[in-house]
């Protein structure tokens, strides 16, 4: 007979922001609407579908399957303060004033700030589990590597997308403080805790 309370070894959503995951699901949904209008390759289509499916599966796990371990009391960031300004900006600054282009631009802008509910949750609780910090580090590294990709593409292909570059720089800047704490604490075997 198992207890209803999760043990430390059980699967848990403690420390993970469901709101950030919802924003990432919205990011990939709005970014990949071109699945209905154009076909590039089987690989491209498969990867887009995998991104969308994984983001919604994560949301399902947080809000349904592991709901008992999700810490909604600390996941209180008001996402409308991100979605509304990002929506307005995507209407004002985009490459082409068409529905798919505006939604793609919205996804780029929103991805740059979608991590804020997670960072807010960590700042509110004052600490994060090691696995959560590793997840955040690699999420930030993924965006930092995009900067390398854009530099590469500019020098070798002559391609430059100001919207994507600026959004990537904004997102990387948001991670800088976290990267510092990760390197100085987590990599040295200490738990990430923020000053009170």
From TrEMBL:
Signal peptide (residue range): none
Q: Which domain of life is it from?
A: Eukaryota
Alphabetical GO biological process terms: protein retention in ER lumen; protein transport; vesicle-mediated transport
Question: What residue ranges are annotated as transmembrane?
Answer: 49-66, 103-123, 135-156, 162-183
Q: Does the keyword Transmembrane apply?
A: yes
The record's section on InterPro entries has: ER_ret_rcpt
Q: Which GO terms describe its molecular function?
A: ER retention sequence binding
Q: Name one GO cellular component term.
A: Golgi membrane
Membrane-related topology note: Multi-pass membrane protein
Q: Kindly state which keywords UniProt assigns to this record, in alphabetical order.
A: Cytoplasmic vesicle, Endoplasmic reticulum, ER-Golgi transport, Membrane, Protein transport, Receptor, Transmembrane, Transmembrane helix, Transport
Task: Report the locations given in the UniProt record.
Answer: Cytoplasmic vesicle, COPI-coated vesicle membrane; Endoplasmic reticulum membrane; Golgi apparatus membrane
Q: What is its main location?
A: membrane
Q: Which family does it belong to?
A: Belongs to the ERD2 family.
Q: Could you identify this protein by its name?
A: ER lumen protein-retaining receptor
């Amino acid at each position: 007979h198992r207890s209803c309370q999760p043990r430390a070894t059980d699967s848990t959503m403690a420390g993970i922001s469901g709101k950030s995951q919802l924003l990432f699901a919205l990011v990939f949904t709005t970014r990949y609407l071109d699945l209905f209008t154009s076909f590039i390759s089987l690989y491209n289509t498969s990867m887009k579908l995998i991104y969308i499916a994984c983001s919604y599966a994560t949301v399902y796990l947080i809000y349904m399957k592991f709901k008992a371990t999700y810490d909604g009391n600390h996941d209180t960031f008001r996402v409308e303060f991100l979605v509304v300004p990002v929506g307005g900006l995507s209407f004002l600054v985009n490459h082409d004033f068409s529905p798919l282009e505006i939604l793609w631009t919205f996804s780029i802008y929103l991805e740059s700030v979608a991590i804020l509910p997670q960072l807010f949750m960590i700042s509110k609780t004052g600490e994060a589990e090691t696995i959560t910090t590793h997840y955040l580090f690699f999420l930030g590294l993924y965006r930092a590597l995009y900067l390398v990709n854009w530099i590469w593409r500019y020098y070798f292909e002559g391609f430059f997308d100001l919207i994507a570059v600026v959004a990537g720089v904004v997102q990387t800047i948001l991670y800088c403080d976290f990267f510092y704490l990760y390197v100085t604490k987590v990599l040295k075997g200490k738990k990430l805790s923020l000053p009170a």
